[in-house]
Amino acid sequence: MTDLRLTVPPTTGRVDITVAASIELDGRFLTVEERAGGRLVFNQPAGHVERGETLIEAVIRETAEETGFGFVPNEVLGIYHWHDDSDDLTYLRVAFLGEATPPTDEPVLDDVIVATHWLSRAQLVAQQARLRSPMVLRCVDDHVRGARFPLTCLSELNLERQLREVGP
Predict the structure, then answer these.
(1) What is the distance, to the nearest Å, from the Cα of residue 146 to the centroid of all Cα atoms in its chain?
(2) Is 141 among the domain residues?
(3) Is residue 1 part of a domain?
(4) Distance between the two ends of the chain, CA-based, in angstroms?
(5) Residues of the chain with pLDDT under 70
(6) Confidence (pLDDT) at 155
(7) Quick check: 72 and 99 in contact, CB under 8 A?
(8) Contact at 8 Å (CB) between 90 and 12?
(9) Which residues pair with 48 in a beta bridge?
(10) Which of 23, 24, 52, 108 could cross-link to 100 by cystine, CB 3.0-4.6 Å?
(11) Could you list the residue range(s) of the whole structural domain that residue 146 is in?
(12) How far apart are CA 32 and CA 143, in angstroms?
């Protein structure tokens, strides 16, 4: 029997839960160029889940805030666990695939967003040193290879909202 060992990145006391939208059109991926850590980096439309928000609500909001696009998630691309040694943070990213609708007006984007781009995988590889994290290219690769999971693989037990709906 083969000994299979998995190396799991360490988890610090703080785990940031983030979401990302993987949106592809004709072999190019919707990408944001943003300021992070004193540099200009490329990322999928992505961000943190806010208190009281579901994962799906978060990815819809983050996509709109960072690109102006409407986004309706219809599948999970993957769940990514990564530890960033530079700031000693662990990230748990849930990436989604779905239908995107371009903005009808000039969008007002988050202050950290410099521009949006449609970039091919090759263009992203050429900018690898400027990717926000290794999760960016991994999501693109998973998208290209056809990784897909139904939204029902997520169980969101938002107890705060349920308790508010039920009342005291």
Answers:
(1) 17
(2) yes
(3) no
(4) 56
(5) 1-13, 157-168
(6) 84
(7) yes
(8) yes
(9) 18
(10) 23
(11) 15-166
(12) 17
